[in-house]
């Protein structure tokens, strides 16, 4: 594993806040010249530490403000089932986050859709397309209090 130094961490913090920042402005903020700053960013990308540069979109303003959490139990834990299940879920654009869990439920996903009707359509598609689900429980966010992509580096 690559050991991040102080400057690498500063670069990552700044890019998490605004990935569109110019190299010149970023270099100035981390007390480097542009070429060494660019090299560090390039190295962080090559190492896979920076996976991509994204735009943060206000979900409410694009009519995707309904947040559902789906907890799933299954009795099938074969490698073949897991592979097919994972592929199916990853291909659903409504799924924002998807985890294999320890505890009462086997999987957890966060879903973003327009409203309860759209969630119901998603739910029906899920239970129709995925065999072997023994329990599918949904909960819904009443209010989003915090949402960030910024890791505490």
Description:
This is Leucine-responsive regulatory protein. It comes from Phocoenobacter uteri. Residues 4-67 form the HTH asnC-type domain. This protein is of the alpha+beta class and 153 residues long. It has two domains: 6-46, Orthogonal Bundle (Arc Repressor Mutant, subunit A); 59-140, Lrp/AsnC effector binding domain/regulation of amino acid metabolism (RAM) domain (Alpha-Beta Plaits, 2-Layer Sandwich), CATH 3.30.70. The protein is built from five helices and four strands, in the order αααβαββαβ. A four-stranded antiparallel β-sheet has the order 2-3-1-4. Strand 2 and strand 3 form a beta hairpin. Helix 2 (23-29) crosses helix 3. The mean pLDDT is 97.
Brief descriptors of the model:
153 residues, alpha+beta, Arc Repressor Mutant, subunit A, Alpha-Beta Plaits, 2 domains, 4-stranded antiparallel β-sheet, 5 helices, 38% helix, elongated, Leucine-responsive regulatory protein, DNA-binding
């Amino acid at each position: 594993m690559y050991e991040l130094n102080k400057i690498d961490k500063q670069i990552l913090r700044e890019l998490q806040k605004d990935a569109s920042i110019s190299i010149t402005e970023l270099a100035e903020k981390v007390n480097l010249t542009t070429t060494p700053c660019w090299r560090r960013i390039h190295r962080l990308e090559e190492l896979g530490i920076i996976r991509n540069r994204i735009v943060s979109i206000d979900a409410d303003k694009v009519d995707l403000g309904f947040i559902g959490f789906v907890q799933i139990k299954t009795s099938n834990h074969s490698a073949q089932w897991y592979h097919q299940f994972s592929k199916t879920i990853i291909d659903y654009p409504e799924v924002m986050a998807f985890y294999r869990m320890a505890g009462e439920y086997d999987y957890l996903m966060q879903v973003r859709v327009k409203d309860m009707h759209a969630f119901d359509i998603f739910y029906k598609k899920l239970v129709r397309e995925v065999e072997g689900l023994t329990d599918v429980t949904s909960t819904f966010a009443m209010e989003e209090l915090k949402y960030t992509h910024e890791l505490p580096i």
